[in-house]
Amino acid sequence: MPLSTVATGREDVTSPWPVREERRVVSVLFADIVGSTALTERLDPEDVRALQRAYFDTVAGVLRHWHGVVEKYVGDAVMALFGARHSDGLDAYRAVRAALEIQRALDRRPMPGGVRLRVRVGVATGEAVVDLAAARDGGHGAASGAVTTTAARLQEYAPAGGVVVCAATHRATADLVDQRALAPVALAGKALPLDVWRVTSPARPRRPRHEGPLVGRRRELATAQDQLVRAAREHRPRWVSLVGPDGIGRSRLLHELRHALREVDGVAVRWCVTHCPPYPQGALGPVAELVRDLAGVRDSDPPAVVYRRLAALVDGLVAPARATRTVAALAALLAAPEGTATATGGPAACRQVLLALAARQPVVVAVDDLDRAGPELDRFLRALFAAATLRGLPLAVVATHRPQLADPLPVPDDRRCRVALAPLGAVDSGRLLRRLLGRAGRPAALAGRLLPLVGGMPGYAGAYVAASGDGEPGLPEAVRRTASARLDLLDDARRAVLTAGAALGVGFTAPAVDRLLGWAPGRAAALLRRLATADALLRCDRHGRYEIVDPALRRTAYDRLPRAVRAEFGRRAEQWRATASGRVAPTGSGTAAPRLATPRPADAEPTPALAAEQVSALAAEQLAAVASEPVAALAASAAASDGGRDHHIAGTRRNLIAPDLRSTVDGSGRWSMPPASSARNRARDGGTRVADGLRPDLGWGPRSGGGHEGPVVPILPRLAAGPRRASDAVARHDRPLRSTPDGRAPQPPSPPAPTGRGSAAVVLALHQAAAERAGQTPPRGGPPLRRVA
């Protein structure tokens, strides 16, 4: 049966999604009139009705503008939902902006009878079960959860005409609105007092801060820099786009590019940078920020200082007869960047100044988050680029945006460059995590726990480090918001396929997805291919098995499923297993996501394997017990195979970076050994660790700042030969490196023939080798190795 019948027992044709209900993180706005009881007592009922109509019409118009959904009207109170149907990652911000706009709109609109209405507004953010079909204006009962009650209680503590938010809303809007902490409040039914903040106004756009060196983006940086240099030398404008999803590091790369390219052939490059905030107050705000960046004007400068700096900017660039008029237009743009009549001449004046600057020296106009800009900025950039092309000026435009935005200029391919930012590799992610952990004062050993979670996203790495504690890492709020926005960009069919894949785990197939969703056979295949190619959200191996690239996206998709749907997924997964190859993987307990064991290829030999969670538990417990220093990262690549034919385990990456073992095994079965003589790779106990810059994908370990290329030896065949023989081989390669003065490793002997052991041999051999080097006896009594039949 279709999944829309799971929660209710009936099929609802109005539900746009294969499930009727979802668990979603939403922001709830609750607004109530101050003194409404006394007001209705002294007014005629007809006057009360007219007043209510004007009030509700004003509030509903503001909520529609900010994409909120009116859940219910309760007397003279209004409750609205943000993020109930679709999330853009800024649901809390939109709710707060709507609350502030409601106050201003009521102050501006004359009410019947000359009555002045004052309202209190509370905004709370939290998880709720949302009826997707009912999540529309007037959809009573669309959301259920404590967050709705919290929003209603919060507004009682707001001052008249004020907006009060909870802690979760405060964290989500900390850099976007000005807030002031209030005393904690005790709400009815809450065990502890709640921290609350009063929001006063939207904040001025703040540029993100970037600290520390750039990691893993040398190729992208060189490509963009080359395009800018060619534009300056050839006097042919170029458009460079830095493209990638949120959290991939677009702004960080732009920051590095600005500092890397300061001059071309001895001539200084003039950079003009602007940032497009989410839902800007003014349509011309980004152009006004360009002017501030050019003239060096600060927000706190008085008008006299602003005028003096603008005059210094245009001096020599504009004819004296037009200088006064140009300065006045720029000053009006800075004073009123909302696109009013007094500011309409500002973009033309700014464009004139930029073209005059480009006639003297190379100019780069950089726009961060262009996908947030309005049509006014697009028109400004088009006119600027066209004029610079016509005059043959050394001008370039650099824009960062998400992949969904098409390049706004139809320029020839030789003058347009789209630099796509892919997730970082495991080595670069580990380097970034260690640096972030060191800056935060956290132990570097946490990198091993965080590495499988960040998915190569630098933004995720920063969020996980900031939220890291002593327990199991949870999904940070910022990461969940980003993942929710990416998930909701998909249409219903692709969301259904991705959610089914999240429930199946790693290594799911198209027939398994069809079975879970109750679809006709073959329907999911084309959608899976599109998710893997055009959307780049899935990874497919040569056997047609898929996995979700972004771990946060996988977790967010699964967390949205109600318990009843999870149970139904489990039942259908069991039915699929019964009709597949007969191999059953453990599904855990409770409502955990079922894992589906897919049939092995026909040419593979039937050999035992360990479940992914068992390998992780064994490695974490036994390797940590014998190692002399913490394991930085463990993602063992060891499938049920014949010594290296198909190295993969469900739920793991195909890399192993274990500094305690002084080596690296990549997914193709190669073992990269760092040099022991490198001083900065020397461990505290005299051993070596994996160095920054290790490139197992290239089969060697380059060293910056000294050292040499580490040798590469085939290791998985040795590991497959059994724990004792494999540990002897590992020790033979490790001990010479620890004892050779010059750090050069001798040529390893030829590997023995594989014996068909599987992932158990890999983990046990690594464990045995670590124990031998530490001079210890391997601990007994570890977690039992349950084999898969």
Task: Give me the secondary-structure topology.
Blueprint: E1 21-33, H1 36-42, H2 45-65, E2 69-74, E3 77-82, H3 91-108, E4 119-131, E5 143-144, H4 146-155, E6 163-165, H5 167-172, E7 177-181, E8 197-202, H6 218-234, E9 238-243, H7 250-260, E10 263-264, E11 267-268, E12 270-275, H8 285-295, H9 303-314, H10 320-335, H11 346-358, E13 363-368, H12 375-391, E14 395-401, E15 416-420, H13 426-440, H14 447-454, H15 458-467, H16 477-488, H17 492-504, H18 510-517, H19 523-532, E16 538-540, E17 546-548, H20 551-559, H21 563-579, H22 612-626, E18 655-658, E19 663-666, E20 670-672, E21 712-714, H23 716-720, H24 723-739, H25 759-774
Helix pairs in contact: 2-3, 6-7, 9-10, 10-11, 11-12, 13-14, 13-15, 14-15, 16-20, 17-18, 17-19, 17-20, 18-19, 18-21, 22-25, 24-25
